[in-house]
Amino acid sequence: MKRGTLITGCIVVSCFFAGIFLADTVRSNKQVENLPPSLQTYTQDLTGKPSPDFILMDVSGQSRNVSEWQGKVLVINFWATWCPPCLEEIPHFINLQDKYGDQGLQFLGIALEDVDAVMNFANKLGINYPLLVGEQEVIKLGVKLGNRIGGLPYTVILDRSGNINFIKVGPLSVSEAEQVITPLL
């Protein structure tokens, strides 16, 4: 009897705190129009605001600053090798980088992963854009860019001035990407 009561008590307390967290999240967030209702409240709408400055390591161990791509339309994509939707959209990003790169488009992959895993996938897929890697610093950057729940894939598109123009949790289709990117080029 006591074990069952303890388990029930733990479940009730967990549900209580989860409810408080979700209620606070729903009250404090603006909804992002391009997300399904189930995800709208977990993303902070930063549209029109400047992107935070950040430095992360690339797959070769070099520090890279986001300012390197200032003046370009920058598509920042958070992904991981264990995320099937992430891996499905990468070939489309490779094609878009080829198609629009000479017009000022730059994709930037940010992987929540170790370098070896990222390099294996990058080589298999023929990724043609810079890849940055990290752990806690990637999670913190995602939060700064509006991803409050750490959902993957997560894409942020910056205009040439470095302002956030578009945010999406979940896979980004080619047509959706082009609809956002082409007016910014």
What does this structure look like?
With 185 residues, this protein is of the alpha/beta class. The chain has a single domain, classed as Glutaredoxin. The chain has six helices and seven strands. It has helices at residues 2-28, 37-40, 84-100, 115-125, 136-144, 174-181; strands at 55-58, 63-65, 73-79, 105-112, 131-134, 154-158, 164-169. The protein has a seven-stranded mixed beta sheet, with helices on both faces. Strand 4 (105-112), helix 4 (115-125) and strand 5 (131-134) form a beta-alpha-beta unit. The longest helix is centred in the N-terminal third of the chain and has 27 residues, at 2-28. The protein is globular. The N and C termini lie far apart (67 Å). The model is unreliable at 6-33 (pLDDT under 50).
What labels would you give this structure?
185 residues, alpha/beta, seven-stranded mixed sheet, globular
List the helices and strands and how they pair.
Blueprint: H1 2-28, H2 37-40, E1 55-58, E2 63-65, E3 73-79, H3 84-100, E4 105-112, H4 115-125, E5 131-134, H5 136-144, E6 154-158, E7 164-169, H6 174-181
Parallel strand pairs: 3-4, 4-5
Antiparallel strand pairs: 1-2, 1-5, 3-6, 6-7
This entry's quaternary arrangement is single chain
The CATH H-level homologous superfamily:
Glutaredoxin
H/E element sequence: HHEEEHEHEHEEH
Mean pLDDT comes to 83
What is the overall number of helices? 6
Strand order of the main beta sheet, please? 2-1-5-4-3-6-7
Strand content: 15-25%
**Morphology:** globular
List the uncertain runs: 6-33
The CATH architecture classification is 3-Layer(aba) Sandwich
Distance between the termini: 67 Å
